[in-house]
Write a structure and sequence with these properties.
This protein has about 425 residues and is mainly beta. It is built from five helices and 37 strands. Among the domains are: about 180 residues, Pectate Lyase C-like (3 Solenoid); about 35 residues, no CATH class. The protein is about 10% helix and about 35% strand. The strands form two sheets. The protein has a 24-stranded parallel β-sheet that branches. Strands 3-6-9-12-15-18-21-24-26-28-31-34-37 form a 13-stranded parallel β-sheet, with no helix packed on it.
Length: about 425
């Protein structure tokens, strides 16, 4: 009632000379629609949250807002910015906390949490709730950017997340999920954080069509997150690439893994993964394209591995994996292993270094192909030998191994190599 009388009085006497106010803020306010604007009776988002009712709407006009940590604890509300209002944490706090179900946060710029060795400061923290939507926000210069903690069935979409690009120890993650099942993370751009996207104890999730680049550790990192799908994402120039660990039933489909360069960098590191599909991905210009350690019963199919140092590393602990219809080209080493025995198999892949023949013209080489080079075994045991990669002695070793293949593991043989790359 007070808000209505105030708006009527202002309409009669007009504004004080030299002051203007947004048109929306001068309208009568109800508890179902609240407008936040500088210099009005609702000048803070905290005040708007106090006034709005469940399932209502808060509109935030352009401006810079500096408040203590804002808690959105009214179920079903939508907080929507106009003109990219900025919420500044002042360098020492979490900025927004979503603490009620079905809350939507849209169109805000959130910045400047500072960092802490004790607290996981976040630009937007979704805490112990469900079915929330965080979409089309700009989160910049924060410790953690968007952090979902024990929250189920949420959606994080179309956000621009930019970190400071500091060392790993000084930065948090871009989009971080902890015990947050059935979360959809889609169409976000993330850069400059420790890990771009992190799933931890978060089952049944989906990460789709995200771009995660130039992060200080992993573009995507997930652990103990069963039955998740990762589809059509782009991971580029991340210091250590992508790591998928301690999970079951993962699907990794149509992603791009590019430019992970360094002694501990992987396009995709698979560690202790049981069951799943790795299909139709592109691995380009990585020190190691795909690394399998303690990972079993994976269907690895239709992938393109090009210009990598090691295209695929299959350790002895990786068992019963099937590589079919993959394309290997311009890699220093197509396949490397640390053992003379393996239960993983290669069949019907295309290798640019295959020099076989196809007399019956069925599209399959008549002679098997051994992708494990003898020199790769030497390098695996003595890494400094890599300096000899382009030397004539390596060519002699390769020629001798093709004539008399007695040292390379016989089990890692493609007995039906394709004559043409699969489409």
């Amino acid at each position: 009632m007070i808000a209505v009388l105030t708006a009527v009085a202002l309409a009669v006497v007009g504004q004080p000379e030299g002051r203007t106010r947004p048109v929306e803020a001068a309208r009568p306010l109800t508890d179902s629609v609240v407008v936040v604007a500088p210099g009005t009776s609702v000048a803070t988002l905290t005040e708007a949250v106090r006034r709005v009712r469940a399932n209502g709407r808060i509109i935030v006009e352009a401006g810079t807002y500096r408040e203590p940590t804002i808690v959105l604890d009214v179920p079903g509300i939508t907080v929507e910015g106009r003109g990219w209002p900025t919420f500044d944490g002042g360098g020492a706090q979490t900025v927004l906390v979503v603490a009620a179900p079905r809350v939507t946060v849209r169109g805000l710029t959130v910045t400047n949490t500072g960092r802490s060795d004790l607290d996981d400061l976040a630009g937007i923290l979704v805490r112990t709730t469900s079915d929330c939507v965080i979409e089309r926000n700009r989160v910049r210069d924060t410790f953690f950017a968007i952090y979902l903690k024990q929250s189920a069935g949420c959606r994080v979409t179309e956000n621009e997340v930019t970190g400071r690009g500091v060392e790993q120890w000084a930065g948090g993650n871009g989009i971080h999920l902890w015990y947050s099942p059935r979360t959809i993370v889609e169409r976000n751009t993330v850069s400059g954080h420790r890990d771009g996207i992190y799933f931890e104890f978060s089952t049944g999730g989906l990460a789709e069509d995200n771009s995660s680049e130039a992060n200080q550790r992993y573009g995507l990192h997930f652990m103990f997150s069963d039955s998740c799908r990762y589809v059509a994402n782009r991971f580029r120039d991340n210091t250590s690439g992508v790591a998928v660990m301690f999970s079951r039933g993962v699907v990794i489909h149509r992603n791009r893994f590019e430019n992970a360069r360094g002694g501990a960098a992987y396009g995709l590191l698979l560690k202790e993964i049981l069951g799943g599909q790795i299909t139709d991905n592109i691995f380009d210009n990585n020190s190691t394209g795909m690394h399998l350690e303690g990972s079993s019963r994976l269907a690895i199919r239709g992938n393109t591995l090009t210009r990598n140092g090691w295209a695929v590393r299959v350790l002895a602990s990786a068992e019963h994996n099937e590589f079919t219809d993959n394309r290997f080209s311009r890699n220093a080493f197509d396949v490397v292993t640390n053992s003379r025995t393996s239960t993983s198999t290669f069949d019907r892949n295309w290798w640019d270094s295959y020099r076989g023949y196809d007399l019956d013209r069925d599209g399959v080489g008549d002679a098997p192909f051994r992708p494990v080079r003898l020199f790769s075994l030497v390098v695996e045991q003595h890494p400094p030998a890599m300096v000899l990669l382009r030397s004539s002695i390596v060519g002699l070793l390769d020629s001798a191994e093709r004539v008399l293949p007695v040292l390379a593991p016989d089990v890692l043989v493609d007995r039906h190599p394709l004559m043409r790359a699969p489409k």
